[in-house]
Amino acid sequence: MSLFSPTTVGSIGVRNRVSLAPMTRLRANADGVPGPIVAKYYEQRAGIGLLVTEGVFPSAESKAYPGQPGIVTDEQAAGWAKVADAVHAEGGVVFMQLMNGGRVTHTDITGTDRIVAPSAIAIEGDTRLADGTKVAYPVPHALETSELETVRDEFVKAARRAVDAGIDGVELHSANGYLLHEFLSPASNQRTDGYGGSPEARARFVIEVAQAVVAEVGADRVGIRISPAHNIQDVWEKDDAETRATYEALIAGLAPLGLAYLSVLHADPASDLIQDLRRAFGGTFIVNSGFSTMTTRDEAVTAVDDGIADLIAVGRPAIANPDLVTRWEQNADENEVDQASVYGPAERGYTDYPFLQG
Fold first, then answer.
1. Which pick of 41, 99, 246, 339 has the fewest CB atoms within 10 Å?
2. Which pLDDT tens digit goes with each residue over 141-153?
């Protein structure tokens, strides 16, 4: 087994053990439709074993950012069908990350009359609207117990739309401070019903969403991403017994489903916590070491060689190097990321990075 050897994700074969980490890129149009530029971006990176898209909103209420793509309307689904066709034409595999932004948004972004979260606790700080204006995050609506079924079913319908559009599978975004992650943390979940108050209760909604999506599209088409103790967007989790108990409860509920993979964002993927969760999950395991440094070729090779993970999710190096796997196989130089152009509407910093010559 090596970074450049084939493997399977669910029932789908992938040609190497590099995965494109899901990264917000904000190139959809004002209606959340991914256009030709998005298809080109993913097509260029189809040599990466498993592509995971940026977070895609499953309902208008869950849209987190201007320029974010959705999978709610027929037009959005048609845009993603072209992405799938472009990736498949190059022999690639693509999963769509389904992301409910939860309280990480504003009604001037969603166009709805509320935003939702487990509890009515706002994030400190500001977000940006489409015109660049900064506005404070509002206090979210605390979802009633009776409303959880609706939110769950939005994920289910989105998964069905994605698969029907030709996308190979979906990843449930339960990381980085968005809605599903908000349920897991006592900092953002202070509920007193059956979905809060204990590790098992906080994990319950995420498990129920996963169960429902699996029932709709099949376990081999469903992965999930988590970020224990990553501490971002005011979802604070200490590296302590409470966090361990929460994620152990989550994985105990997910393991019997036979998901395609578990993807974990953590500063130390070799830590006891992360490797214990891996063993409890029992399936394909993907790691991403986080935002502070970029994953290098040697780190990725070593992680697979040492058995830390089955696949390595790579972020910024894959932005700047559409042919990243080829460069890593040849131990060639890499393009540097133009950080100023990571978010924006244009080709610059998106589809204009050069390929390896010769």
1. 339
2. 999 999 999 999 9
